[in-house]
Design brief:
Strand content: 25-35%
Radius of gyration: 22 Å
Shape: globular
Largest sheet: 7 strands, antiparallel
Helix content: 10-25%
Number of strands: 13
Length: 290
């Protein structure tokens, strides 16, 4: 492969930018950990549990280390080709410029479970890294790569895949609350792509922005025919997906659980495991389910 030609293709739209600019946008910084303090404490007035860590501030990333900066702790073997995996999360709380260190808190997302934090701390040590997304692009790039991978997979197995627009002008039609239209023969169905829940990767994250037709931040069953959930946060493989039919459990045995107060909406964080009777490894397996 001609990498110089590839670089010019990747940057053609943006003009004369150096390679390090593209690297900085696409590649999060990996910050070594100096100290992990496993002593768990509770935030005053809240139900959230935390632990503490310390890092050294080095010149190559000192501009990123400010109070409030968040990142993800990842294992050291990610640098040696192992699949990417989040252990837990970190947030910078204070910076000591005199000794060039910063202190922060270790947490596991929105969950208040002390046991989940303990499990993360059992794995976290100073051989791991705090991964910081320098310019906020990593999550969007991952989401786009997931959709690209899914579209390629479905096309390779005989489906015609059409990606829906990000927005919709009112004089053309209504906004599509799903990501893809997938066709096989004359049959066209709607597919929504989601991810695992970063706080607990045993569960899918089936959320939707609130709005006039969405009184809760859960997806409506009627908005799509199927869900495709990327399993990347669990497996580190961009090509791993789980598929489910978008019907309530109250109607079909393979259906998804419903939101407690909104029976026409799916539960936000249902368990997601291929082979459990709800989630399947391919779209073919759920295509004909009523």
């Amino acid at each position: 492969m001609n990498y110089e030609e590839l670089f010019h293709k990747l940057t053609r739209r943006y003009g004369d930018i150096p390679p390090e600019a593209l690297e900085s946008v696409l590649c999060p910084v990996l910050v070594p950990i100096k100290v992990v303090d496993n002593a768990i404490f509770k935030i005053e007035g809240q139900s959230h549990f935390r632990a503490s860590f310390t890092i050294d501030i080095l010149p190559q990333y000192e501009g990123l280390i400010v109070p409030g900066r968040t990142g993800k702790f990842v294992p050291a073997n990610c640098l040696k080709g192992a699949a990417w995996r989040e252990i837990c999360k970190g947030r910078i709380l204070s910076v000591n410029l005199e000794n060039s260190t910063a202190d922060g808190e270790i947490y596991v997302g929105a969950t208040t479970s002390q046991d989940i934090l303990k499990q993360a701390l059992a794995e976290l040590d100073n051989s791991c890294y705090l991964e910081i997304d320098q310019y906020g692009a990593a999550a969007k790039v991952l989401s786009s790569l997931v959709e690209y991978s899914l579209a390629r997979q479905l096309s390779a197995t005989g489906y015609v895949v059409r990606r829906m627009p990000e927005d919709m002008a009112k004089h053309i039609g209504t906004y599509k609350n799903y990501d893809f239209e997938v066709a096989r023969g004359e049959v066209v169905k709607r597919l929504e792509v989601k991810s695992l829940w970063g706080t607990n990767t045993e569960c899918a994250r089936l959320i939707h922005s609130k709005g006039r037709d969405y009184p809760t931040s859960s997806c409506k069953f009627a908005s799509q025919d199927f869900f495709a959930v990327s399993l990347f946060l669990r497996s580190g493989n961009i090509s791993d997906f789980a598929f489910a039919r978008s019907v309530p459990k109250t109607e079909q045995p393979y259906g998804l659980p419903v939101a407690t107060k909104h029976p026409d909406h799916v539960s936000q964080n249902p368990s997601c495991h291929v082979g459990d009777g709800v989630w399947f490894a391919t779209l073919d397996e759920v295509w004909d389910l009523p």
